[in-house]
TrEMBL record:
Identification of the protein by name: Protein arginine N-methyltransferase PRMT10
Ligase listed as a keyword: no
CDD domains attached to this UniProt entry: AdoMet_MTases (cd02440)
InterPro entries according to UniProt: Arg_MeTrfase, PRMT_dom, SAM-dependent_MTases_sf
Domain Protein arginine N-methyltransferase: 177-366
UniProt source species: Malus domestica
Length: 492
């Protein structure tokens, strides 16, 4: 079938660096269990294949630029179900090497054969760092982008493939990438504060019951439990499909990548100063949203005949499974049209897991009057790109999120610490729900996820309230029945 295994998989050690300064090697067995294995399921592949924006961009990039593929050797890095390899062959490629690290390679072989392309497409199961090809290639195509572009660190494998196997005249698909941030308004912060309060109320009941029933006082653990829950609920970045109306200022580019020349050291850390202008009157700065674009331009000496762009920016009709990352500010800040937001952004890989990121995000608000609001910082550590707006010791461990319908990539975590520098969370009253809802419209469209549609509703209708209402008639009936029985005792 023109397919084979190439390279090992499972408990051996790889020389791949984890991205830290020390460059400690990554245990490939652990990396496979934590990352690659999630891509071995068809349901996961289906979610990505159902992303119309993603699919259209790659399809158009290949078939509107057939001159890059016709008669050429192509390498598909992280082939998954094999669709990019199949399109490359259909566009006229002489030979396509489809490298996939998981057992999804077996399904890719079946799809290739079902489309009568087994003589052109060779599926290779193995890691890109270990694979040995029989020739150099003219094109490398890959869908390597993670949440907020760099989460998952799969671009490392693409760089490895490029340095080892791309001809000097070869092209990269995509060729360029850009990371963006913009100020946003959202009700998610209010929801997360409510979740935190509920968690602490539950803890108080737990400690009371443990002491009363079992004679053990657990209240000494209240402070560490509170810190743990703050990290979980209040300092974690979130996956979300934002509506464009939730973006309240100009977007700023924080990183541009040329896929033909970028090195791993170029993406180990992202550091950027940026500015944004508020475009909405009298609103709340609830945090920042982050997303990315990739472009298919070919190379300077061999440009694309028709450039194609894939964007994950907030959209009414064209949302993607990547969505956007939301970095919450707690508490929000009042801003208005014309205010300037000057910020700095820093993101680096987690020492615990090289596929996750830690982010620090700082920002100051210069009002139209010229008054400067104290600098805000959000510190994020562990798990994924985190976020910051003033230096308070708040960090949050982020939950792994399985994405339903529109959350198909490997589970993600983000840590965020977003608080005014001069204020403490304990002493600062949070904005009430009624006030918060004034500038938080709800939008519903066919592509947005349920969390986005219910964003405002959840603030006013806590889960379970509807069920309680439905029980009222039953309770009234039982009360009436008891009263009737008590007034008509049975005759002996």
């Amino acid at each position: 079938m023109g397919s084979h295994r190439n390279g090992g998989r499972g408990g051996d050690q790889s020389g791949t660096s984890n991205g830290d300064a020390g460059g400690a090697p990554v245990d490939k067995g652990v990396d496979f269990a934590n990352y690659f294995c999630t891509y071995a399921f068809l349901y996961h592949q289906k979610e990505m294949l159902s992303d119309r924006v993603r699919m259209d961009a790659y399809y158009n990039a290949v078939f509107k630029n057939k001159h890059h593929f016709h008669g050429q050797a192509v390498l598909d890095v992280g082939a998954g179900s094999g669709i990019l390899a199949i399109w490359s062959a259909q566009a006229g490629a002489r030979k396509v090497y489809a490298v996939e690290a998981t057992s999804m390679a077996e399904h890719a072989r079946a799809v290739v054969k079902a489309n009568n392309l087994q003589d052109v497409v060779e599926v290779i199961e193995g890691s890109m760092e270990d694979v040995v090809l029989p020739e150099k290639v003219d094109v490398i195509i890959s869908e390597w982008m993670g949440y907020f572009l760099l989460r998952e660190s799969m671009f490392d494998s693409v760089i490895c493939a490029r340095d080892r196997w791309l001809k000097p005249t070869g092209v990269m698909y995509p060729s360029h990438a850009t990371m963006w941030v913009a100020p946003i308004r959202t009700g998610l912060g209010d929801q997360k504060n409510n979740d935190y309060d509920s968690s602490m109320d539950d803890w108080e009941r737990f400690t009371d019951e443990t002491k009363n029933y079992y004679g053990v006082d657990m209240s000494v653990l209240t402070k560490p439990f509170s810190q743990e829950q703050k990290k979980y609920y209040l300092q974690t970045s979130l996956w979300n499909n934002l509506h464009p109306h939730q973006v309240i200022g100009t977007a700023a580019s924080i990183k541009e990548i040329d896929c033909l020349t970028a090195s791993v050291s170029d993406i180990l850390e992202v550091n950027s100063n940026f500015s944004s202008t508020v475009t909405l009157q009298n609103t709340r700065l609830c945090g920042y949203g982050g997303w990315f674009d990739v472009q298919f331009r070919g190379r300077k000496e061999d440009p694309a005949q028709e450039e194609v762009e894939l964007t994950t920016a907030p959209s009414v009709d064209d949302s993607t499974h990547w969505g956007q990352q939301v970095f919450l500010l707690n508490p929000p800040a009042r801003i208005t049209e014309g205010d300037k937001l000057n910020g700095s952004f820093s993101m680096k890989r987690s020492k615990e897991n090289h596929r996750l990121m830690e982010v620090e995000f700082s920002c100051e608000i210069r009002q139209q009057s010229g008054e400067l609001v104290p600098r805000l910082v959000a510190l994020c550590s562990s798990c994924s790109p985190s976020f910051s707006i003033t230096r308070l010791p708040l960090r949050l461990l982020v939950p792994k999120m399985h994405r339903s319908s529109s959350t198909a990539r490997a589970s993600e975590e983000f840590l965020v610490n977003f608080s005014p520098a001069s204020l403490s969370l304990a002493s600062t009253p949070l904005l009430k729900t009624a006030a918060a809802s004034e500038d938080l419209p709800v939008y519903s469209n066919g592509n947005s996820d349920h969390a986005t549609k219910k964003e405002i509703g959840l603030l006013h209708n806590p889960p379970g309230r509807e069920n309680v209402i439905h029980l009222i008639p039953v309770v009234l009936f039982l009360c009436g029945f008891i009263l009737w029985i008590s007034s008509h005792p049975p005759k002996m």
